[in-house]
Amino acid sequence: VPVKRKFPEADAFMLEPVPMLNPLPTDTTDLDKLITNSTENYGKYKELVQRYEMWQEWYKQQKEIFESVK
Question: Would 41 disulfide with which of 21, 50, 55, 61, CB 3.0-4.6 Å?
Answer without folding.
Answer: 21
